[in-house]
Write a structure and sequence with these properties.
The complex is a heterodimer of chains A (262) and B (595). Helices cover 53% and strands 2% of the residues of chain A. Chain A has 262 residues and is an all-alpha fold. Among the domains of chain A are: 39-126, Cytochrome c-like domain (Cytochrome Bc1 Complex, Chain D, domain 2), CATH 1.10.760.10; 135-221, Cytochrome Bc1 Complex, Chain D, domain 2. In chain A, strands 1-2 form a two-stranded antiparallel ribbon. With 595 residues, chain B is mainly alpha-helical. Chain B has a three-stranded antiparallel sheet. In chain B, strands 1-4 form a two-stranded antiparallel sheet. Classes of the chains: A mainly alpha (262), B mainly alpha (595). Chains A and B meet through helix 8, helix 9, strand 1, strand 2 and helix 11 of A and helix 4, helix 6, helix 11, helix 12 and helix 16 of B. Chain B: It catalyses: a quinol + 2 Fe(III)-[cytochrome c](out) = a quinone + 2 Fe(II)-[cytochrome c](out) + 2 H(+)(out). Chain B: It is found in: Cell membrane. Chain B: GO terms for molecular function: metal ion binding; oxidoreductase activity; quinol-cytochrome-c reductase activity.
């Protein structure tokens, strides 16, 4: 104490205190400040960006413009972020297979994950946007019951209660979520592709998104409690079943009994 | 007793004991009951009741057995179901709902499905039986309509049947709403909207039914009482009346040899139909249980509890309410307007409130309309073949097409995603079909019926074309026709064909204008609509004439046939004595000289 107190009027003391305070503040800021979402940009080296630009020029530029600033056939990609690229290209929606009301998911994406990462790095370098989510939020393991509740409030009106999909206007549709990876579900919520609204981290926190993904995983993996689930589309397939197989068997039995000699 | 007649040898093993005459222990019990209740007379009447055999008569039986299944399984469900909207938190064994806030009603339904032993199976039997109940009611009604079984003396039973159909729909809807899951909550929300759409008094009606605003706490307990007490009591009562009237009227039968309006050809209830009907009950129960064991219905644990902020894509009612839902999807939104500071929501009101009473009134009026048009006051116990009443069959098909267009429209969203079509296009197609479909169905069905009747006439007059060509000695070609025998012919000729009525004079003998002239004019117009292009059944005179039209060559054909038989044995031409048609020059087998 005495040694420190003796030097408190030392000419350098003010400077040292200032440096210390700035270091603490800066450190705290670095720890506590909201993370900027362009994590991909930070990790991507310039080589990836260059390779991504090459891929972009040869595969995407005809619609999105050579500087990704958009053209008559495609929107600008400045600021859409890596998450958007990873979702659109990773699910095979981009490059667009055919014009239509809605880009359709393809069975197999056109690019490898490495190429998609390069494309994402390039697009992320154009402007700040949502990054590809870390795997801790996309692999499930969250609260299923909470996720179910959030899903019913936010998603079921388009995607149906079990994520089986539903119709939108004029041929558009909310696709089935049953075979969509957790990462892509997260990215879709983050970027709001096509008719889907954006559910950013203020609407649904990363933990909420994790719960929703866990709920969907559970729907897919849960054994069907009551027998064949008829696609989880509600009463329409049930009515169809009653009108075809159900009454069909009973009428068959009636015909058999009616013919049976007494 | 012993004599030396040879017949005694045959009788030596006969039982010699005198019959006791009291039927053993069963007879003693029956006698005990009869002496105290006089039940023997009624039981004998019922046991001797004769029923005809046909599979289509068993559609109503399917409905009856489904009703019994529903009563049994429904009772089971009430042991665990809690009809309350009290808030609670789920802590049962189904993990995906653990800790979720929900109503007592939903929680108890999840418990029945997940924790009560056999609960899910019983729930699914209850629900599948409900769907099959309504399907079989509708098919039974279709059978009754298309065969004209609603005619005198069965008009009252037709009306009772219609009421049963409508009550069963309401009963089903009430049951669908009870679990308070996401789907049923949406259904109740829609029902509230329907009530609100009633002009002027709508908000009062909704407020009375819900005991205040939506959702309130009253609706589930109220629906429960309606579902397990009020409607089942009315349905069972009406159903009993329905069955008693069947006993009183005797069952109808299809036309056939030996069947008249004064008899019933078939087998008595005891023992044949007791066995058949009893067996059929177990078949229906067994098939329903099998389906319920294999196929999920209404997975409420997947839907989750209802909250007014939630809705799911693919929210549909059970199939029997589908046509009303479809009507709502088709009615254009511009039917909503504001007048004198009141909002009138006719796009909802017409489909949700008016449609069912209108359709049921139309169905209820039809038997009386047809009777008025035909002026037919006879009792009918013989059924019509649908083709022999072409206009009625056409009207029925038009009605069904109207119904099913609305029905399919209720699934427009699923058609859109499954068939990759635009929901807007599908809706427009159904809107057009709502009006075009019934007209087309009427026209096509009526033409088909008339063609079938013409074919029947042809078959009766000329027999079946065997395809066997006969060449006479002088080289003329004939095709042998195999005539129908009397048993085959009877159903084809034994129907009544009503002629269109003509207008009675508008002025009576004394020169006074008849009061009902306008009604008469209407009746004449309808009568022409019904019977203008009718096909008459073949008369005996026509049949006689047809049999003589090949008279000039008869001898020659018979001679040829006999010659053939002599040469080739009896295998040939055993039936070639009915008639023949000389093949014209246009036929590929015609005589070359005639070409």
């Amino acid at each position: 104490m005495s040694a420190l107190a003796a030097r408190r009027r030392h000419p350098a003391a003010l400077l040292i205190v200032l440096i210390f305070a700035m270091a603490v503040l800066g450190g705290l800021y670095a720890v506590l400040a909201p993370k900027s979402a362009d994590a991909a940009e930070a990790t991507a080296n310039s080589g990836q960006i260059t390779a991504g630009r090459q891929l972009f020029i040869s595969n995407c530029a005809s619609c999105h413009g050579s500087n990704a600033a958009g053209g008559p056939a495609g929107p600008s990609l400045v600021g859409v972020g890596a998450a958007s690229v990873d979702f659109q290209v990773g699910t095979g929606r981009m490059p667009l297979q055919q014009p239509g009301v809605q880009a359709q998911r393809a069975n197999k994406p056109q690019f490898t994950q490495a190429e998609i990462n390069q494309l994402a790095a390039y697009v992320a370098s154009l402007g700040t946007g949502p990054a590809v989510p870390p795997s801790q939020y996309t692999n499930g393991g969250g609260n299923i019951a909470k996720g179910g509740e959030l899903f019913r409030v936010n998603c079921a009106m388009c995607h149906n209660f079990a994520g089986s999909g539903g119709a939108l206007t004029r041929g558009k549709y909310a696709p089935s979520l049953m075979d969509v990876s957790g990462k892509h579900v997260y990215e879709a919520m983050l970027t709001g592709p096509q008719s889907m609204p954006v559910f950013n981290d203020t609407n649904l926190s990363p933990q909420d998104k994790k719960d929703i993904i866990s709920y969907l995983k559970n729907v897919k993996e849960e054994p069907s409690q009551g027998g064949h689930n008829l696609g989880l589309f509600g009463p329409v397939p049930e009515g169809m079943f009653a009108w075809t197989i159900g009454i069909g068997i009973l009428i068959g039995a009636a015909v058999w009994l009616g013919r049976k000699a007494a | 007793m012993t004599t030396s007649r040879p017949a005694d040898d045959l009788r030596k093993d006969d039982k010699r004991d005198e019959p006791k005459g009291n039927g053993g222990p069963a007879g003693a019990i029956a006698n005990w009951v009869d002496e105290r209740t006089g039940a023997a007379k009624g039981a004998r009447f019922l046991m001797k009741k004769v029923f005809p055999d046909h599979w289509s008569f068993m559609l109503g039986e399917i409905a009856m057995y489904s009703l019994i299944i529903l009563l049994l399984t429904g009772t089971f469900l009430t042991f665990w179901f809690v009809p309350s909207m009290g808030e609670t938190v789920y802590n049962g064994s189904y993990v995906p709902l653990k800790g979720v806030q929900m109503s007592e009603a939903f929680k108890s339904t999840v418990n029945i499905s997940m924790d009560v032993r056999g609960g899910l199976l019983i729930r699914q039997i209850h629900h599948w039986a409900a769907l099959l109940f309504l399907v079989s009611i509708m098919l039974h009604m279709a059978r009754v309509f298309f065969t004209g079984a609603f005619r005198k003396p069965r008009e009252i039973n037709w009306i009772i049947g219609l009421l049963l159909f409508m009550l069963a729909m309401v009963e089903g809807f009430a049951g669908y709403s009870l679990p308070d899951d996401l789907l049923s909550g949406t259904g109740i929300r829609a029902a509230e909207g329907f009530m609100l759409s009633i002009p002027v008094i709508g908000s009062y009606v909704a407020s009375l039914v819900f005991g205040g605003g939506f959702p309130g706490e009253a609706i589930i307990p109220r629906l429960f009482t309606v579902h397990v007490l009020l409607l089942p009591a009315i349905i069972v009562g009406l159903f009993t009346a329905h069955i008693i009237l069947v006993m009183v009227h005797k069952h109808t039968q299809y036309p056939g040899p030996g069947r008249t309006n004064k008899n019933v050809v078939g087998f008595p209830l005891m023992p044949v139909y007791t066995a058949k009907a009893g067996g059929f009950f177990f078949i229906v129960f067994g098939v329903t249980a099998l389906i319920s064991g294999l196929v999920t219905i209404n997975p409420i644990w997947m839907y989750g509890p209802y909250e007014p902020t939630m809705v799911t894509a693919g929210s549909q009612p059970d199939w029997y309410m589908g046509f009303a839902d479809g009507a709502l999807r088709l009615l254009p939104g511009r039917l909503e307007f504001t007048l004198l500071e009141h909002t009138f929501v006719f796009n909802v009101f017409i489909g949700a409130i008016l449609l069912i009473p209108l359709m049921w009134t139309a169905m209820g009026i039809y038997p009386f309309l047809e009777k008025w048009v035909t002026g037919d006051n006879e009792e009918h116990h013989l059924l019509d073949r649908p083709r022999n009443a072409p206009t009625r069959t056409g009207i029925g098909m038009a009605f069904f097409v109207f119904y099913f267009v609305l029905f399919f429209a209720a699934g427009n969203d699923l058609m859109a995603i499954k068939l990759h079509l635009s929901i807007n296009d599908i809706t427009w197609a159904f809107r057009i079909l709502t009006f075009l479909g019934p007209v087309m169905a009427f026209w096509i069905t009526k033409r088909l019926c008339l063609s079938l009747q013409r074919r029947d006439r042809d078959l009766v007059l000329h027999g079946r074309e065997t395809g066997r060509i006969i060449r006479t000695a002088e080289g003329r070609f004939f095709e042998a026709h195999e005539p129908l025998n009397r048993y085959q012919r009877w159903p084809l000729v034994s129907f009544a064909s009503h002629a269109p009525v003509s207008l009675p004079a508008g002025i009576d003998r004394n020169g006074v204008r008849r009061r009902k002239a306008a009604a008469d004019k209407m009746r004449v117009r309808l009568s022409h609509f019904f019977f203008n292009d009718r096909i008459e059944p073949v008369t005996p005179a026509e049949l006689e004439a047809a049999h003589h039209h090949d008279e000039p060559v008869r001898e020659e054909i018979d001679h040829t046939v006999e010659e053939a038989r002599r040469l080739e044995g009896d295998d040939f031409g055993g039936k070639l004595h009915g008639g023949a048609e000389e093949l014209s020059s246009s036929s590929a087998y015609g005589h070359p000289d005639q070409r």
